[in-house]
Design brief:
Helices cover 28% and strands 20% of the residues. It has helices spanning 6-11, 18-22, 102-106, 121-126, 138-161; strands at 41-44, 51-57, 63-70, 93-99, 110-116.
Length: 162
């Protein structure tokens, strides 16, 4: 992911009002984030406990920001993240809903997704997988997981704007 500043984040929201975008709280230590290690930037708003944000980039490099609402109830069963597909279950997975963009969203349509509650997907896919069998290419498997995460995030953004 390319570095992005606060102004670009606030201007790139697809499913939030100007007021919602202007009232967001950036993640702690925002200025120290290493964007080269991220496929998307996600965080929960410390001032609004059930509100979260995701910032990603389209294939053309344009930033896209999305406002998410976390469900009140935690997921009771262990669920798998829809984006990173992490199977080690180190992280809790939470259901988030996003209002669709445009007229569809104004009519109340939403899109739901299970995501790691701490938005640690980029870190999860960059961990070297265990050796599955003799001759298993762990580096290629890691590269494939990174690519799939990027595809899942892009697919979510496309569906949100459809």
């Amino acid at each position: 992911m390319l570095p992005i500043d606060e102004r670009a984040i606030r201007a790139s929201f697809r499913n939030a009002s100007r007021k919602e975008a202007s009232s967001l709280t950036l993640p702690p230590a925002f200025g120290e984030i290493d964007f080269s290690l991220l496929d998307y930037l996600g965080w929960s708003d410390p001032k609004m406990p059930r509100r979260a944000y995701v910032v990603a980039q389209r294939d053309d490099g344009a930033p896209v920001s999305v406002l998410l609402q976390q469900t009140e109830q935690r997921t009771l069963a262990r669920a798998q993240c829809s984006w990173c597909e992490d199977v080690t279950l180190r992280n809790d997975v939470q259901f988030f809903a996003a209002r669709k963009a445009g007229a569809s969203g104004r009519n109340g349509n939403t899109l739901g997704v299970l995501i790691c509650s701490g938005f640690g997907c980029s870190e999860n896919v960059r961990r070297l997988p265990p050796l599955a069998y003799e001759g298993y290419d762990r580096e290629a498997a890691r590269a494939q997981r990174i690519l799939r995460l990027q595809q899942h995030v892009q697919g979510f953004l496309r569906e949100l704007e459809a």
